[in-house]
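As practice, study what follows.
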Amino acid sequence: MRWIILALCTWCLATAASAQDRAAVERQFQTWLQNTIWPAAKAKGVSRRTMQQAFDGVTLNWKLPDLVPPGTAAQTPKRQKQAEFGSPGKYFNANSVQGATSVGRQMARRHAATLARVEAETGVPGRIILAIWGRESGYGQVPIRHDAFQVLGTKGFMSTRANYFTEELIAALQIAEAGHAPSDSLKSSWAGALGQPQFMPSNFLAYAADGNGDGKADIWTSPEDTIASIGTFLAQHGWVVGRDWGFEVSVPKSVSCALEGPDQGRPIHDWSAMGITRVSGKAFPKHEMSGEGYLMMPAGRNGPAFVVTPNFYVLKDYNKSDLYALFVGHVGDRIQYGVGDFNGRWGNVGNLYRSDVATMQRALEQLGHDVGGADGLPGYKTRRSIGRWQQASGRAPTCFPEVGMKSALKP
């Protein structure tokens, strides 16, 4: 009984200490708002009234990911909740793909005139705009519940990307000051993204467009403005008019998966000459053959492969994930052309902690490979580094982290 009482007392003391720590951090947060954020916001034309309304009753949201409270150090998380961090195939679950496609076709009919006009003005295909709209907010049907000022304030004060979110917080205050949002309170995603296209506040200020001619850029309630804003974003990020986003292909064993990446591009006719073919059986379009293409294998040899164009990387400017850009291109093609699932099948990969992948990345770095940083995420630099290491060590290159590599790849 005595050890139980002792354990309870120890737990109570730890809980009390934790509460005191959080209370102290909350006070630091309020001081930071007044001493750092308010002067910066004022310099951008934000009034004291807007500042007070934005943070009235707002406290830190301790449930957000990637937080680094004062006095602690950032760590590579062992588990991850975002789909981009897990097995690639999970990103393309049937419900997500089919839902975005079926509703996208309805929206294509409903907003045909707006889509045609925006495509003519920006060069961005309507099917691509629709796929982004569907992925970001379910065509405006997904509830967005977070308080944008709490999210951006928390992440600006104590996150792994504090400077970035501080700038976004100032931009959100500018949006509130100008009265762009349809209500006094801004709602956002857990990352601070706004409205149906899920623009970060700075992107709203830069790219939000008036699609219905009413003199406003309303990405919260207007489908027309949402469509125009997405098209404007992609156009201003370099969408190449007349080119596709990419093609699913078959990559023969004679072509190394380590040739992946936007810095290893070559004309598509060169990829074709190496034996890479479209899985559809069709030839690459003639107008694409002289244009640059890039090998993209998001699961290495354990999944579908693609030759993508510069437009694929414009899609990545919207969201940095390879899988996101691939989802958008694929759903857009399904909406307009009625294509089916990928021909390649996703293997059972991704069953690793991010900390495991980070360990492999550090080992590869020590061997002289550029993995793009030891962040625990298997981006193209990590994938091809694994492939090069596998080739150099006499292994069959798969270009993707696997459980069996944990013992062989240690710093």
The CA atoms of residues 30 and 346 lie 48 Å apart. Residues 2-43 form the longest helix (42 residues).
